[in-house]
Amino acid sequence: MGIVFILSFFFLMISILPSYGYDPLDPHANITITWDLMLENGATYDVKVSLYNFQLFRHVDRPGWKLSWTWISDEAIWDVWGAEATEQGNCSRFKGGVLPHCCEKQPVIVDLMPGAPYNKQFNNCCKGGVLTSMTQDQTMYGAAFRMNVNKATIKNTGNNFIMPLNFNLGVLGYTCGDPFQVPPTKFKADGSRRSTQALQTWNVTCIYSQFQASLTPKCCVSLSSFYNSTIIPCPQCSCNCEGLGGTKCVKSDKTPPLLELPHANDEEPQPLVRCSNHMCPIKVHWHVKESYREYWRVKITITNLNFVKNYSQWNLVVLHPNLRNVTQVFSFNYLPLNPYGSINDTGMFWGIKYYNDMLLQSGPSGNVQTEMLLNKDPSIFTFREGWSFPRKISFNGDECVMPPPDEYPRLPNSGHSVTEKPCLIFFSLFLLIVLVL
Ligand SMILES: *[C@@H]1O[C@H](CO)[C@@H](O)[C@H](O)[C@H]1NC(C)=O
Ligand SMILES: *[C@@H]1O[C@H](CO)[C@@H](O)[C@H](O)[C@H]1NC(C)=O
Ligand SMILES: *[C@@H]1O[C@H](CO)[C@@H](O)[C@H](O)[C@H]1NC(C)=O
Ligand SMILES: *[C@@H]1O[C@H](CO)[C@@H](O)[C@H](O)[C@H]1NC(C)=O
Ligand SMILES: *[C@@H]1O[C@H](CO)[C@@H](O)[C@H](O)[C@H]1NC(C)=O
Ligand SMILES: *[C@@H]1O[C@H](CO)[C@@H](O)[C@H](O)[C@H]1NC(C)=O
Ligand SMILES: *[C@@H]1O[C@H](CO)[C@@H](O)[C@H](O)[C@H]1NC(C)=O
């Protein structure tokens, strides 16, 4: 009995403690790279490499993935379909009159752009490196390419296939693990009546961590309501402080300088934002708009304050206890996310294709908005204590900075401060005691 108790306590602790890169809203989030050895042919072999974005609400935006790995020996890539190596490298050891596509020890492979020459294409290729989240577009969350590789010459083993190492997705924030061999992938043939399979299949799992991507937030939240005229702005310096050494921004009465647009494979440019107290490229505004007898209405506006980026395939994840009673969402797509089954307090919003799935650069059209109707559930609903405001918001998977709860717009004459004060006094006393000790 005792051991069982201790063990279950131990597992409980493990499941509560956050592990590396772990997101409780999407506990299995990963990008998987699958390496299918398709055929061996004397001195060369063919591989099909696939990338799958198994994340509910994080996507790979322009400039896209740049997959790299380290060959164990002196392999070289003769040819690639559906992607290309950024550098050919030093191929001087090949004397046959034809040079390989890439002889780098650490090749960097990028996707082809849409509309690539037909003879260079491959199934599911050519999306400029963009992978949408699994939720948003079932046709765009994967990518694949095929390559023909010159086998390594290793004395003891002869000419063999050896799995390369050190995979890297080339996208900020992701770390990939070591390849591990899995059961061979099966491919449907003859209208699914027959299946063929790879000779060997290896998986590599890559995981995202916001802390690895950037320490500074990229988004903040402001709040307002129909029952109180105060607008609670984003917290001061949420993302940066105006005027702090080296920060650049565009004053509200100025137009931004003419900027050179980034080229397809360039790194993402540093944000250039509209000057504000928070300096965030993205601001989310939550407005409690109206109260009806059985429903209440919320308006959400996402504003792009960045002059150098259009956010394609953006998404917003919101945590609010009343989301379990969402009745209608206007002009956005909505999907409840509930990894733990019973609790429906989290949902994901994203744009409607060709209508508002692109959040344009800062300016008059640089915003998207929705309204939603929520059913008042008498057991939980209240306008008091800031209950009608979100608990947590993230934009494109990165958490937004929220105003502190004690600043939320208050109902006129609410008992708010009365209930809060004893708690504060108690806390200060506690602090004092700790300090004295
Ligand atoms: C390997 O990745 C594929 C997707 O690419 C997935 O279907 C399969 O389940 C993975 N295998 C393991 C053992 O994780
Ligand atoms: C990656 O995500 C998929 C889909 O959620 C999941 O089935 C798979 O187990 C995950 N892989 C790992 C190694 O967590
Ligand atoms: C290219 O590789 C060969 C050996 O394969 C080496 O002798 C030569 O120095 C290399 N050239 C450069 C410019 O690195
Ligand atoms: C954003 O999209 C608009 C309209 O398609 C385009 O005119 C603009 O140059 C784009 N801006 C950036 C930074 O890519
Ligand atoms: C609650 O979650 C279930 C299961 O995911 C879903 O079918 C249902 O639509 C959700 N309800 C609301 C109001 O989001
Ligand atoms: C709100 O959702 C909960 C859980 O799904 C349900 O039990 C409750 O009846 C709903 N309330 C209203 C007013 O629809
Ligand atoms: C509106 O909310 C603010 C911030 O919580 C509060 O200071 C103010 O007293 C409220 N206004 C009214 C009329 O209650």
Structural description of this entry:
This protein is mostly beta strands. It folds into two domains: 24-211, Immunoglobulin-like, CATH 2.60.40; 221-258 and 269-423, Immunoglobulin-like. The chain has three helices and 30 strands. The strands form eight sheets. Strands 1, 2, 4, 7, 11, 12 and 15 form a seven-stranded antiparallel sheet that branches. A hairpin with a 3-residue loop joins strand 8 (152-154) and strand 9 (158-160). The protein is elongated. It starts with a helix and ends with a helix. Mean pLDDT is 86; it is low at 1-20 and 415-429. Residues 261, 308-310, 360-361 line the site of one 2-acetamido-2-deoxy-beta-D-glucopyranose (NAG).
Integer tally of domains: 2
Query: If classified by CATH, what would the architecture of the largest domain be?
Result: Sandwich
Oligomer: single chain
**Rg result:** 26 Å
* Main β-sheet description: 7 strands, antiparallel
Assign an overall shape: elongated
**Roughly how much helix do the residues carry, as a percent range?**
under 10%
InterPro entries: COB_C, COBRA_pln
Subcellular location: Cell membrane
Keywords: Glycoprotein, GPI-anchor, Lipoprotein, Membrane, Signal
Membrane topology: Lipid-anchor; GPI-anchor
